[in-house]
Amino acid sequence: MRVSVVLFAMIAKTLAFRTPALVSRRVSTRMFSSATENPPMYALGVNLAKQIGGQFNGLIDKSGPEMEAVIAGFRDTMKDELIIDPDAYLQEHGPELNKILQERAAGVVDKMKVEGKEFADEFLACNDDAVKTESGMIYLPMKEGDGASPSISSSVEVTGDGEIEIEMVN
């Protein structure tokens, strides 16, 4: 397997200057090579990306120059190869970055609100027994009790089973 990957990398590297489509494959091959040559450190990179990356879903264009700039800034900082003072750079460009991220985050939140409302409306339409409270909470009673209702000062004990399904939205 290793021989095939190295051979493919050599071919891709040779042809990359002639065929633009192979440039991205060459990068992919290099990343795969890192995964096989030093799996623990590659796993650390995967872990960091999973921890940090999720916070920026929908905020950064992952397929274009924005992602390349983010990766370059991360790489240069991690390797201590910055040619500028990082604090001064953040002070100069941080406000613009914050503005961009806030605008994009607002767009993501608006999209999620619309999707949430659509989901709630569909759930109510498909479940005749579903109940929507004044606060907007929706629930589907499995078995309603017939005892006294608690007051605001009552102590209650709740037993039973429940499920919650969370769907991650990209």
Task: Please give the structural blueprint.
Elements: H1 2-15, H2 21-37, H3 39-53, H4 65-78, H5 86-126, E1 131-132, E2 138-139
Kindly describe this structure:
The protein has 170 residues and is an all-alpha fold. Among the domains are: 1-37, no CATH class; 95-139, no CATH class. Helix content is 59%, strand content 2%. It is built from five helices and two strands, in the order H-H-H-H-H-E-E. The protein has helices at 2-15, 21-37, 39-53, 65-78, 86-126; strands at 131-132, 138-139. A two-stranded antiparallel sheet has the order 1-2. The two termini are 34 Å apart.
Classify the helix fraction into a percent range.
55-70%
- Oligomer type: single chain
Give the overall average pLDDT: 78
Shape: elongated
Sketch the major β-sheet. Answer: 2 strands, antiparallel
CA-atom Rg in angstroms: 26 Å
Figure out the total of helices: 5
Q: Classify the secondary structure makeup into a structural class.
A: mainly alpha
Q: What's the count of strands?
A: 2
Protein name: Peptidyl-prolyl cis-trans isomerase FKBP-type N-terminal domain-containing protein
Keywords: Signal
Signal peptide: 1-16
Domain Peptidyl-prolyl cis-trans isomerase FKBP-type N-terminal: 42-139
